[in-house]
C-alpha cells in the first residue's frame, strides 16, 4: 500500500483526491496546514508527499524546501493552481520531483505517483522517526530537533535497533547480543547502561526513549 501525505487546505479537493487514491490501494492522510504537515512528518515519513502551494499558514514551496533539507529522497509533488513558469521553476529549485497544475486528471496524478515511486523505492523504510528524533538509514545520520547528532558506531546501532522496533520493548539481552556479541566484542551488562546514558545525553534526554526496568528499552511516540 502506498502511504501518502496530502498537504491541502481545500477540503473538497482533498476529499476527491483521497477517495480516488484510496480506491487505488493508497492510504491518504490530509493535512490542512503546514504546521500539521511538519508535525506529521517528524513523527512518521510516508512514501510520497503531495503539496499545495497556497496554504493558510505559509507557502508550500517553503515547506518543500524544509522537507528536502531533512529527507532528500522523499518524493514531493506539487498540486497547485499556480501555472506561472517562474513558480514552476521555483518549485523544482526548492526540491519538488514533479509539478502538476490544477485542474488535473486523477488518473494522470496516480500514474505520476507510481512513476516516482518506481524510481525512489520504499522511501519510508529509509527514514525512521520518534518524537523529535529522526534517523536516515541511507546516510547513517541522526537528527534531534533538526540538528545533526554525532553518535559512535555502537550508539548508532543501538538507537537504530530501538527505532526499527518502535513501540516494542527490546530486551537488554537482545541488544547486547545483536550489537556487541555479533561483532565478536564480548562485554558486560554495564556497557549497555553506559552507552544508553551517552545516547540520552546527546539527544537531550528524549521522553520517547523509555527504560523498562530490569528488562530493556522501548521507543514510543509521546501521546
TrEMBL record:
<feature type="domain" description="Response regulatory">
    <location>
        <begin position="3"/>
        <end position="117"/>
    </location>
</feature>
<dbReference type="Pfam" id="PF00072">
    <property type="entry name" value="Response_reg"/>
</dbReference>
<dbReference type="GO" id="GO:0000976">
    <property type="term" value="F:transcription cis-regulatory region binding"/>
</dbReference>
<dbReference type="GO" id="GO:0005829">
    <property type="term" value="C:cytosol"/>
</dbReference>
<dbReference type="InterPro" id="IPR036388">
    <property type="entry name" value="WH-like_DNA-bd_sf"/>
</dbReference>
<keyword id="KW-0597">Phosphoprotein</keyword>
<comment type="function">
    <text>May play the central regulatory role in sporulation. It may be an element of the effector pathway responsible for the activation of sporulation genes in response to nutritional stress. Spo0A may act in concert with spo0H (a sigma factor) to control the expression of some genes that are critical to the sporulation process.</text>
</comment>
<dbReference type="InterPro" id="IPR001867">
    <property type="entry name" value="OmpR/PhoB-type_DNA-bd"/>
</dbReference>
<feature type="domain" description="OmpR/PhoB-type">
    <location>
        <begin position="125"/>
        <end position="221"/>
    </location>
</feature>
<keyword id="KW-0238">DNA-binding</keyword>
<dbReference type="GO" id="GO:0000156">
    <property type="term" value="F:phosphorelay response regulator activity"/>
</dbReference>
<keyword id="KW-0804">Transcription</keyword>
<dbReference type="InterPro" id="IPR001789">
    <property type="entry name" value="Sig_transdc_resp-reg_receiver"/>
</dbReference>
<dbReference type="InterPro" id="IPR011006">
    <property type="entry name" value="CheY-like_superfamily"/>
</dbReference>
<dbReference type="GO" id="GO:0032993">
    <property type="term" value="C:protein-DNA complex"/>
</dbReference>
<dbReference type="Pfam" id="PF00486">
    <property type="entry name" value="Trans_reg_C"/>
</dbReference>
<feature type="DNA-binding region" description="OmpR/PhoB-type">
    <location>
        <begin position="125"/>
        <end position="221"/>
    </location>
</feature>
<protein>
    <recommendedName>
        <fullName>Stage 0 sporulation protein A homolog</fullName>
    </recommendedName>
</protein>
<dbReference type="InterPro" id="IPR039420">
    <property type="entry name" value="WalR-like"/>
</dbReference>
<dbReference type="GO" id="GO:0006355">
    <property type="term" value="P:regulation of DNA-templated transcription"/>
</dbReference>
<feature type="modified residue" description="4-aspartylphosphate">
    <location>
        <position position="52"/>
    </location>
</feature>
<keyword id="KW-0805">Transcription regulation</keyword>
Amino acid at each position: 500500500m502506498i502511504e501518502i501525505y496530502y498537504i491541502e487546505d481545500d477540503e473538497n479537493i482533498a476529499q476527491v483526491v483521497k477517495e480516488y487514491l484510496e480506491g487505488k490501494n493508497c492510504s491518504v492522510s490530509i493535512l490542512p496546514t503546514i504546521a500539521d504537515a511538519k508535525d506529521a512528518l517528524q513523527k512518521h515519513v510516508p512514501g510520497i508527499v503531495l503539496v499545495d502551494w497556497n496554504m493558510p499558514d505559509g507557502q508550500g514551496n517553503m515547506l518543500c524546501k524544509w522537507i528536502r533539507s531533512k529527507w532528500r529522497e522523499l518524493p514531493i509533488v506539487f498540486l497547485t493552481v499556480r501555472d506561472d513558469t517562474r513558480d514552476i521553476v521555483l518549485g523544482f529549485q526548492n526540491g519538488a520531483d514533479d509539478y502538476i497544475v490544477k485542474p488535473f486528471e486523477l488518473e494522470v496524478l496516480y500514474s505520476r505517483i507510481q512513476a516516482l515511486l518506481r524510481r525512489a523505492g520504499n522511501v519510508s523504510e529509509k527514514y525512521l522517526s520518534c518524537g523529535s528524533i529522526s534517523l536516515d538509514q541511507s546516510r547513517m545520520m541522526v537528527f534531534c530537533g533538526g540538528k545533526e547528532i554525532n553518535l559512535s558506531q555502537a550508539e548508532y546501532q543501538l538507537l537504530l535497533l530501538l527505532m526499527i522496533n518502535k513501540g516494542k520493548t527490546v530486551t537488554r539481552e537482545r541488544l547486547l547480543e545483536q550489537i556487541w556479541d555479533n561483532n565478536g566484542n564480548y562485554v558486560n551488562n554495564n556497557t549497555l547502561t553506559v552507552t544508553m546514558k551517552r545516547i540520552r545525553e546527546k539527544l537531550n534526554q528524549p521522553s520517547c526513549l523509555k527504560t523498562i526496568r530490569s528488562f530493556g528499552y522501548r521507543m514510543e511516540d509521546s501521546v
